[in-house]
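Below is one such record:
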Amino acid sequence: MEGLQEQLKRITDKLQQVVQRYHLLQKEHEQLSREVVALRDKEKTRLIRIDELEMKMTALQTVTGQLNETEKKDVEKRINRYIREIDRCIALLSE
């Protein structure tokens, strides 16, 4: 009987260790998940900032006439895309 009780105690102790480790890992997972969300938000903000700066750079190049033919076509495509998006928004608003 003594051996059985010792085995039961060891199993119980190990189970408690596993549960404690599980809770620790769960907290760590939650922390890492929050960090991932924060980093994704930062990345999104930086990508938006990059787009804004690229648009400003293109606008400056357009104004100063420093665009080559490929860049001019890209600007025209972007302007046309914006116009289509505006038209789509107007159509949605008029529904």
